[in-house]
Write a structure and sequence with these properties.
alpha+beta; 60s Ribosomal Protein L30, Chain: A; Phosphoribosyl-aminoimidazole Synthetase, Chain A, domain 2; 2 domains; 7-stranded mixed sheet; 6-stranded mixed sheet; 10 helices; 13 strands; 35% helix; 25% strand; globular; binds cobalt (II) ion
Length: 320
């Protein structure tokens, strides 16, 4: 995309440059539009649950900008000639369920015939132009907070071959269909957040690398503090590893310094592609403990401080 002749506009607050979660366009001194689009093929068997997860994944990019999602449009691909229409209905019902929870109004959509189901949303949100949370801007002395456990890619891989336990399936579906709404509200309310993104396809370290790319700070990540779904280690040791994990690792390995105190399986897990993962944000060190405690008290039980921002090794992440 970089070579294409994009038109510049002083009101464009976030475009392609930094792999932001959403585009932001200022329309007045106190209002900016936040727009994102996301759709994909089913990650779970149940159509209603898939609809929920796809909608959450799209809505979460608005929350990652510190914004509020206002309206959404459906994007649907469906094999209308060969598949039961009720399946499509259930997918859409799942999406609507999450839009309702987010306080987001469905205002339209578009569907095309396709060989396989795909579903997602285009979402429009609003934010004050001075309150946009970009995925860069972390400051030395900040603490890093992650709000959901890692391992959805690994558990989803095990689910496909029916090797995940009922308990694991329940856990991971609950996480993937959970909006980052409350987490985002608490984060914004807590103040002094310098950078934020959500953890999705590039994995925890992939998105963490985006946060410091080309900047003058580095990160230190305490692998022991990173929340992980139960049983993930065993699934990894049995070989349930999605291809995307190694692609993510190859792509970013030059930016990461691993210490022996971080076990190999856990290091690999930090590259596991996540679906509808948690918020990952950098905020003043003195505010972090309070925010994490508030999150844990309101049902975001896995929220944790997982590292800090340092002036050493700029652009790189030290994992211990
Ligand atoms: Co995102
Ligand atoms: Co996205």
């Amino acid at each position: 995309m970089r070579d294409l002749p994009f038109v510049q506009d002083p009101n464009l607050l976030s475009g392609f440059e930094h792999a932001e979660d959403a585009g932001v366009y200022k329309i007045s001194d106190d209002l900016a539009l936040v727009q994102t689009v996301d759709f994909f093929t089913p990650t779970v068997d149940d159509p209603f649950t898939f609809g929920q997860i796809a909608a959450v994944n799209a809505l979460n990019d608005i929350y990652a900008m510190g914004a509020k999602p206002l309206t959404a449009m459906n994007i649907v691909c469906f094999p209308i000639k060969t598949m039961d229409k009720n399946i499509m209905r259930e997918v859409l019902r799942g999406g609507l369920d999450k839009m309702r929870e987010a306080g987001t109004l469905l205002i339209g959509g578009h569907s095309v015939e396709d060989d396989e189901i795909k579903y997602g949303l285009s979402v429009t949100g609003i934010v004050h132009p001075d309150k946009v949370l970009f995925n860069h801007g972390a400051k030395v002395g900040d603490k890093l907070v992650l709000t959901k456990p890692l391992g959805t890619g690994i558990i989803s891989t095990a689910i496909k071959v029916e090797e995940a336990s009922d308990e694991q399936i329940k856990q991971v579906i609950k996480a993937m269909s959970g909006l980052n709404k409350k987490a985002s509200e608490l984060m914004v309310e807590g103040g002094d957040v310098h950078a934020c993104t959500d953890i999705t396809g590039f994995g925890f370290l992939g998105h963490a690398c985006e946060m410091i790319e080309g900047g003058d700070v580095g990160l230190r990540v305490n692998s022991e503090a990173v929340p992980v779904f139960e049983g993930v280690r065993e699934l990894m040791e049995t070989g349930f590893i999605p291809g995307g994990l190694y692609r993510n690792k190859d792509f970013r390995i030059n930016q990461v310094i691993k210490q022996n105190t971080c076990p190999d399986w856990l290091f690999d897990l930090l590259f596991d592609p996540q679906t509808a993962g948690g918020l990952f944000f950098s905020l003043s060190g003195d505010k972090a403990k309070n925010i994490v405690e508030k999150m844990r008290a309101t049902g975001i039980g896995d929220a944790a401080i997982v590292g800090e921002v340092v002036k050493d090794h700029p652009g790189k992440i030290f994992v211990f």
